[in-house]
Write a structure and sequence with these properties.
By secondary structure, the chain is an all-alpha fold. It is built from 7 helices and 2 strands. A hairpin with a 2-residue loop joins strand 1 and strand 2. It is flat and about 45 Å long.
Length: 153
């Protein structure tokens, strides 16, 4: 990977990681901007949202898990991204694998088979966020890696 392109991968990880941190550190800081940003992506129903320090988070527990997964992925050491070739080759299987637990959680909850449970919402959201970060970084690294044809040219 060229040095310039590796900086883009790092910048992307910092951007998404910072985004993943926002709802966790800004729970008690209500502002029109934060309400507008997170209000467009999440229903923020009080009964489905976590409380931090007695204050409702800016997002529901499932979205909080997604943001936490993005943050976790951004903080993973670079050497763990070496499996990114595998992720690019198996994108559909990986996407299905990380989305299926959440889909089952949503389905069973919305059909009334069980109540909304914060640990399940948080966990399935985290898995999806981490998987999305893995896929995004894997594809970005694929862009940043020079192809054999461009090396010979």
């Amino acid at each position: 990977m060229t040095w310039a392109r590796s900086r883009w991968v790092l910048a992307f990880r910092i951007l998404l990681g910072g985004t993943g941190l926002l709802p966790w550190i800004m729970a008690g800081h209500r502002s029109v901007l934060l309400e507008a940003v997170f209000g467009t992506t999440c229903h923020r129903m009080p009964e489905r949202s976590l409380l931090l320090g007695g204050v409702q988070m800016l997002v529901c527990s499932r979205c909080a898990g997604i943001y936490l997964g993005l943050l976790t992925g951004a903080l993973m050491p670079a050497r763990l991204w070496l499996a990114s070739d595998w992720a690019v080759r198996h994108t559909r299987a990986l996407a299905l694998g990380v989305a299926l637990p959440m889909a089952l959680d949503v389905l069973t909850q919305d059909l009334g088979w069980r109540p909304s449970w914060h640990p399940a919402r948080l966990g399935t959201g985290w898995l999806l966020g981490l998987g999305l970060m893995l896929l995004a970084v894997a594809h970005l690294r694929g862009w940043a890696e020079p192809s054999p044809e461009s090396i010979r040219a």
